[in-house]
Task: inverse folding
């Protein structure tokens, strides 16, 4: 009996010690690596060796605290940066998609921008039909697809293990050259070789991806760079769980970086909202993009890897909401600046505002043949898209207001080449002054069948030479503007032979000129066709659709220039005025 009692007591003591050890392992957030062994690093890992480095562990690593929080007024930053408790359901499948900021990228990726896909707002709504006949009607209740990451796993690779080491916060900003990604190191501190798995989670506990197994001998270390992490998201802020049946120690070896985080709610301020995505960048004139992300299952978002600077935050929203720059602005110039100071954390809550959408199809002049890869945008800029393979487009995320819609122009930014089709404003006009405006407002915010029939534009071409030498003048800007009002126009550039081509011109009479003083080389005088020095003396150049006017040539004569400085009446303070 005494032997049995001793055995039971010993077994109980061992279980208690093991429980305390497991509790310690699960409670670690940042652990300093143990001293390095003297021997050289050993085994290689077969699963993607290009991203891994094995090395002896440094002796003098120190931990860094979680970044300070810099919270704008009226914003609630409570618990946004808290590591979830282990008993929370923190490992759902990664079912929320990141943003495709430029929706026309969906076209090049072969996606149908009219597919209903994971968007909770793609419900039965009845749009205002603008052109029921004779144009073919398009499908309604259609949505833009979002980019789906290449997630390596939809559930953690290692759901259990005797030891779990947690490191946070980790940053990933792959593809954004001025943003930063974290690096961490971990070491097998056990007595036997062990294969470790890495499970990555967002800061709110939502699972994002896994990597491994990585085989480490006792005392062996591995450096892991988040730029090479086996997760689908290029922008990530979260933590890693390093799991195995041998103990491990580790730390984040890169300095802390800034974070912008928060919630996105519908206009009730309570319901988490689904949006195409959220991005951060520095404001004008730098305008460097620092990351794009998406809203997680609980309405939170995270943007990290940010150096100290001021940032603007943009939200790309689906109908029935409006795009915005934080806080509630349509124009970036009016956006609130979010300062990152000392690798701090800025927490902001975005409340969506109602918005509208305009959809339709772009055809050739016959009204039947659809035109893919045609740019459609609003006249005032700030919102645009490209037609899909069926000629269909969707402009959503538009704040309430009045808009004139146009298709095509002198440059096709969908294909990054000169346009073939002349610009057209709705309805069937090339003049913005006669275009039909669409007023988006509550109760009337969804217009369908706003269709276009485009003509092949006219072309003007010619050559620009030096009058004295007869040599071509390259890289010169040539303009063609409607002769009487100037409301319609396009331009082209001379090549190495001095030849220019201006395409996609609507039918009209044009004034053609080399008169861009910002581009005209010093020593030449501006010139209007046909060899006239003044605007009012220029000849008319008539253009009709689908035709080419050739030999609109220029022989530039010598010209002079004046320069100086304009001061205020004190004779000291320089003024910036037009001359």
Result:
């Amino acid at each position: 009996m005494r032997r049995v009692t001793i055995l039971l007591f010993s077994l109980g003591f061992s279980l208690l010690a093991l429980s305390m050890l497991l509790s310690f392992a699960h409670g670690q957030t940042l652990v300093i690596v143990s001293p390095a062994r003297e021997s050289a690093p050993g085994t290689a890992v077969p699963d993607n060796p290009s991203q891994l480095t094995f090395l002896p562990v440094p002796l003098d690593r120190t931990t860094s605290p979680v970044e300070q929080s810099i919270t704008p007024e009226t914003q609630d930053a409570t618990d946004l940066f808290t590591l979830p408790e282990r008993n929370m359901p923190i490992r759902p499948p990664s079912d929320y998609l990141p943003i495709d900021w430029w929706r026309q990228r969906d076209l090049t990726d072969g996606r149908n921008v009219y597919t209903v896909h994971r968007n909770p707002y793609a419900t039965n709504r009845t749009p205002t039909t603008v052109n029921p006949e004779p144009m073919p009607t398009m499908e309604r209740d259609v949505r833009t697809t979002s980019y789906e990451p290449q997630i390596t796993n939809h559930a953690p690779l290692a759901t259990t293990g005797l030891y779990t080491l947690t490191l946070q916060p980790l940053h990933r900003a792959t593809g954004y050259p001025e943003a930063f990604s974290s690096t961490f190191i971990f070491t097998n501190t056990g007595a036997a070789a062990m294969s470790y798995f890495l499970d990555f989670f967002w800061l709110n506990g939502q699972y994002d991806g896994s990597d491994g197994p990585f085989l480490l001998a006792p005392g062996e270390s591995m450096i892991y760079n988040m730029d090479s992490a086996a997760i689908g998201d290029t922008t990530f802020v979260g933590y890693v769980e390093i799991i195995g049946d041998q103990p491990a120690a580790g730390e984040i070896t890169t300095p802390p970086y800034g974070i912008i985080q928060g919630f996105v709610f519908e206009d009730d301020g309570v319901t988490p909202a689904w949006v195409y995505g959220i991005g951060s960048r520095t404001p004008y004139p730098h305008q460097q993009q620092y990351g794009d992300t998406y809203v997680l299952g609980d309405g939170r978002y995270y943007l990290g890897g940010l150096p100290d600077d001021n940032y603007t935050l943009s939200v790309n929203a689906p109908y029935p909401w409006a795009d915005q720059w934080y806080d509630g602005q349509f124009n970036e110039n009016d956006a609130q600046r979010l300062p990152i100071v000392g690798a701090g954390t800025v927490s902001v809550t975005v409340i969506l505002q109602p918005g509208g959408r305009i959809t339709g199809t772009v055809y050739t002049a016959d009204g039947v043949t659809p035109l893919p890869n045609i740019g459609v945008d609003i006249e005032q800029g700030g919102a645009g898209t490209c037609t899909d393979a069926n000629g269909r487009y969707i402009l959503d995320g538009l704040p309430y207001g009045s808009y004139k819609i146009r298709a095509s122009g002198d440059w096709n930014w969908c294909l990054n080449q000169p346009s073939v089709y002349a610009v057209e404003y709705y309805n069937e006009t090339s003049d913005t002054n006669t275009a039909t405006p669409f007023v988006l407002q509550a109760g009337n915010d969804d217009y369908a069948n706003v269709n276009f029939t485009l003509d092949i534009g006219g072309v003007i071409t010619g050559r620009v030479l030096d009058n004295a030498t007869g040599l071509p003048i390259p890289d010169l800007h040539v303009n063609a503007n409607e002769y009487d009002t100037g409301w319609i126009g396009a331009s082209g550039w001379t090549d190495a032979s001095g030849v220019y081509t201006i395409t996609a011109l609507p039918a009209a009479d044009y004034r053609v000129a080399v008169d861009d003083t910002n581009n005209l080389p010093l020593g030449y005088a501006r010139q209007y066709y046909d060899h006239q020095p003044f605007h009012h003396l220029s000849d008319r150049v008539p253009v009709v659709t689908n035709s080419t006017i050739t030999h609109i040539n220029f022989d530039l004569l010598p010209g002079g220039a004046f320069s100086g400085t304009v001061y205020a009446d004190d004779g000291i303070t320089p003024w910036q005025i037009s001359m």
